[in-house]
Design brief:
alpha/beta; Rossmann fold; six-stranded mixed β-sheet; four-stranded antiparallel β-sheet; globular
Length: about 300
């Protein structure tokens, strides 16, 4: 059995010289890059299964899941702990491979790719946003956002310009030279979103992106995702919070590794994000730590 693939964020991916790795557009333009002229659904999952072997125990995390996500959709994947949503997200992000079934991204079957090609695909087409931000400490927000471009081999001046524009697009123009310890949780997540956008990906995958944020920061981040979706990017996020999922266009609910529900929300994306009653709206965001949910 093949094992979990490394994210390879610490080294450049092998890229053929005949095609550019990074699109020349910067996040902020409507429908730029791959999102402008799609020929296939961004995501096609055909009867995908995933089995983990824990000693003599076989754990079926996914059971013949099929899913189709068109370009420009805004999807929330929900489910309780152990439902398989994180496993599915890892497969969608080409961080893991299924045990059975097929996964195509932009019409390309990822099972035909080696690890270097998968790393290349991740760098070119997918932007990742994580709950824990994953920013490099003792390094400014600007340098953090530059990192994907550095791994792609872009020169310093071009990296700096693109990173600055990405940070400006998420409202971080005045904080781009601050280190993560000097930023609130919401500011750190906005920097993480800018880092996901700087390569101009057509697909944004966000794993519990509001899980460590208070209500005000959550609203800010959801507005950013909504705007990116309006610009033509496909956004898929994992969340266990119904009020976050309600701000998307479609909800896919998993249970015991199977799709329990797949429904489209009509007109929801036209409403501003609603505040989160279960989170403290008045808790101050202290420098050096992320704002967290009340009660955690």
């Amino acid at each position: 059995m093949r094992h979990l693939l490394p994210f390879r964020s610490a080294q450049p991916a092998r890229v053929p010289r005949t095609r550019p790795l990074i699109a020349r557009a910067i996040p902020g333009g409507a429908g730029t890059g791959d999102a402008q002229r799609p020929r296939h659904p961004v995501i096609e999952v055909h009867e995908v299964s995933k089995v983990f072997h824990l000693g003599q125990i076989r754990v079926r995390a996914l059971r013949e899941v099929s899913l189709r996500i068109e370009t420009g959709d805004f999807v929330a994947i929900m489910g309780s702990s152990g439902s398989g949503k994180s496993t599915l997200m890892n497969i969608l992000g080409c961080l893991d491979i299924p045990t059975g079934g097929r996964y195509l991204i932009d019409g390309v079957d990822v099972s035909d790719m080696d690890e270097d090609d998968l790393a290349d695909l991740r760098n070119r087409k997918i932007g990742f946003v994580f709950q824990s931000f994953n920013l490099v400490p003792r390094t400014s927000a600007l340098v953090n956002v530059e990192l994907p471009l550095a791994y792609a081999g872009l020169r310093g001046a071009e990296r700096r310009e693109r990173a600055e524009r990405a940070l400006q697009s998420v409202g971080m123009a005045k904080r781009m030279h601050h280190q993560p310890s000097e930023l609130s949780g919401g500011q750190q997540q906005r920097a993480a979103v800018a880092r996901a956008l700087v390569t101009n990906p057509s697909l944004i995958l966000a794993d519990e992106p509001t899980g460590n944020l208070d209500s005000h920061a959550t609203e800010d981040v959801l507005r950013i995702f909504s705007r990116l979706n309006e610009e033509g990017r496909t956004v898929v996020l994992i969340t266990h919070e119904p009020d976050v999922a309600d701000q998307t266009k479609r909800i896919v609910r998993l249970s015991d590794g199977e799709v329990l529900e797949d429904r489209r929300l009509v007109g929801v994306h036209e409403r501003p994000p609603a505040p989160h009653p279960q989170k403290s709206a008045h808790r101050p965001a202290h420098a050096g730590s992320a704002s967290v949910k009340a009660g955690r």
